[in-house]
Amino acid sequence: MIYDFDQVIDRRGSGCFKYDALKLFYGRDDLLSLWVADMDFAVAPEITAALQERLANPVFGYNFRLPDFYQALIQWVAKRHNWQVHREWIDNTPGIVPALSLAVMSYTNPQDAVLIQTPVYRPFFDAVIDHGRKLLTNPLIYQNGQYRIDFDDFERQVSQARMFILCSPHNPVGRVWTEDELLHMGRICKKHNVIILSDEIHNDLLFTGSRHLPMAKLEDFNSITVTCLSPSKTFNIAGLCTSVIVTPNENLRKPLSELIFKMHLYLGNSFGIAAFIAAYTKGEAWLSALLKYLQDNRDFVLNFIQEHIPRINAVKPESTYLMWVDFRALGLSDSALQDLLFNHARIALDPGIKFGEDGSGFMRLNFGSPRSIIREALERIKHAIDSVT
Ligand SMILES: Cc1ncc(COP(=O)(O)O)c(C=O)c1O
Asked: Is the pLDDT reported for residue 389 higher than 70?
């Protein structure tokens, strides 16, 4: 089957954040939109067919997830990540961001500290701060165009924390953590009795040479790890709000399950459930084609920047469709950089400072779009930068 990832789909007016909220966030809507982390590609035809099939039964009352929902996840994770998940470990949540808050609420008290590794996806900060918990940060080290973990600092911070929120693979720096790195982090958390909340939403978007390892699968870390999983990034169905939390340790699972139950978050969305099952049972061929297209897009961006915009640097992602771009050599303040890109280049990127102070001077570029859009965006960046003396 041929999938047309080159097709430009006009998403404006569909009520999507990426285009319809441009004016609200950027003050103008005449921008090429390379921010928010969803892709501009049509979903797998198998997902559309499953949604149509669900639509054919025109009653949309309360849902009850049948065993095929859980089986779809269990078989996918076993096949793709060689991890045996049990049905009773799984809780349902509308999304991973709500799951972060649910976990913070379940496992920490207001005086507790939670550790994150910056720069990182903004809601990691919010899930801690908005619930009045103390935020600890373990800044990643950026050296020779690559990010790595400062383990001495990690242990210092973990020793004061109740929980660590891991982003694996990491948004925005694109790292797929190695077994050694995961073991090192896991052992330190175990030693200090710290719960690991492992957000693995990007786990299936892997480029050649990268292998994702679920934290809960390593050593005996399943006793301290709560894993967030979803087909939403991989299959571009974030708007269908259907995700899961996997908690092997019953003592950890109980308070989280109870909170989800009390908040009635378990019923779910009729279409989300249908899409979830279709994605995990029938989406593999589409995903292979997508990964090839994304990898070519990634390489296209890296090559273009190297050849035509040598004044900036991009970090090569090992996973996902987000590129962390370093504009610091231009010597601009964050507001001047934003003005250059938003008002002169007329493209919407996510400002690096959204991801923490260490994101200053960076921007996150979403390359999950047809190549013609990506090319146009890069040309606009080039011209805008060429105009800066
Ligand atoms: C690391 C990470 N977690 C969670 C999310 C969003 O999760 P959800 O849409 O399920 O709330 C994103 C979206 O970009 C993400 O990058």
From this structure: no
